[in-house]
Specification:
With 336 residues, this protein is α+β, with helices and mostly antiparallel strands. It is 18% helix and 28% strand. Strands 3, 4, 5, 6, 10, 11 and 12 form a seven-stranded antiparallel β-sheet that branches. This is DUF4331 family protein.
């Protein structure tokens, strides 16, 4: 859930947790290095997703920051606790269409809300959708200790306390999330040599398709945005990120890490923070910022980035209930 604590006053998109994109992962299949796993998580309640929304996982494989491949997930209206999902695969120009277009590669796949995952296959694609244990680990109270959140401020006013801010408690040990997992031949992605991946949630609302959330780098949207800019950020496209958001990011880094403008821009360019897309070179081991795996401590990484290394690690350990086989995330925790 690295994109959950975005604006303290904003909450989930349109006040609806079903529309909230949480985390994006990309890594090589543990059992077949010629296959790539792409995971887009949403809805921290792990309940059904919105039947009027399009959840999209998009890939740029030639560096122009435009979609070349798009997987679109469209969910049915839940009935008696059950839900199904259709998956569309679009390539080329079709991948840039905002609607769910392309080939319907999965149809009517039953969503899993219990411990046993319903795994679907279609040709050389493998797919899962449903509730799973959330692999994201973080010390939420410790994060709050680092920021002045008085008066409803966002996580943009970093304060470095004289003592360690960390509580040593993982706030996410019993958390679930709604996960969509797709595994594909790496050759399908056409990496030259890398790809850039991002997620989007769009809602058919009042006769229009409204872009309400996006996901790319872990915790970038959380820490770099404010309540005033978050809606615009969610509706924007990666191709415009550097022009629109660099100045805001540089300004924030000056406050949080004492960066000069030149240092901040260099750090952003070195990491590839903008555009806000997850980069993955499948010929290299997956470890953020090259893709993302469940053991990556992305909060420690981001806080070190923001503070120019002044914030010490939290000391938390990754979750141990992840799986070595598909769908990789562990079974959901039982409700208390």
């Amino acid at each position: 859930m690295s994109n959950h604590f975005t604006g303290l006053n904003l909450g989930p998109p349109l006040g609806d947790q079903r529309l909230d994109l949480c985390d994006l992962y990309a890594f090589q299949s543990p059992s077949d290095p010629g296959r790539t796993v792409l995971i887009l998580n949403a809805n921290p309640t792990a309940g059904p997703l919105h039947p009027d929304a399009i959840y999209r996982l998009a890939v740029d494989n030639d560096g122009d920051l435009l979609n070349d491949i798009a997987f679109s997930y469209v969910f049915s209206t839940p009935v008696d606790g059950r839900q199904t999902v259709d998956v569309y695969l679009a390539t080329g120009e079709q991948a840039r269409d905002v609607e769910a277009v392309g080939d319907k590669v999965f149809e009517g796949v039953e969503v899993s809300f219990g411990p046993e995952p319903n795994i679907a296959t279609s040709g050389d694609l493998t797919f899962f959708a449903g509730a799973r244990s959330d692999a994201f680990f973080f010390d939420f109270d410790g994060v709050k200790n680092l920021f002045d959140t008085s008066g409803g401020r966002n996580f943009t006013a970093l304060t470095l306390p004289g003592e360690s801010p960390w509580t040593g408690t993982d706030s996410n040990t019993e958390a679930n999330v709604f996960s969509t997992v797709i595994e594909v031949p790496t050759s399908l992605l056409g990496a030259h040599p890398d790809i850039r991946i991002w997620g989007r949630c769009s809602l058919h609302h009042d006769g229009e398709l409204e872009h309400v959330d996006r996901a790319g780098h872990p915790s970038v949207s959380s820490f770099f945005n404010t309540d005033e800019t978050k809606l615009e950020y969610n509706a924007s496209e990666p191709v415009n990120d550097k022009q629109r958001w660099t100045a805001q990011f540089v300004h924030l880094m000056g406050h949080t890490g004492g960066y000069t403008d030149e240092e901040a821009e260099a750090a952003i360019d070195h990491e590839g923070t903008l555009p806000d897309m997850l980069r993955f070179n499948p010929s290299e081991p997956a470890k953020y910022p090259n893709g993302r795996v469940f053991t990556d401590d992305v909060i420690d990484y981001r806080l070190a980035f923001l503070s120019k290394g002044d914030i010490p690690p939290s000391g938390l350990s990754p979750h141990t209930d992840t799986l070595t086989g598909f769908p990789y995330l562990g079974p959901p925790h039982s409700s208390p």
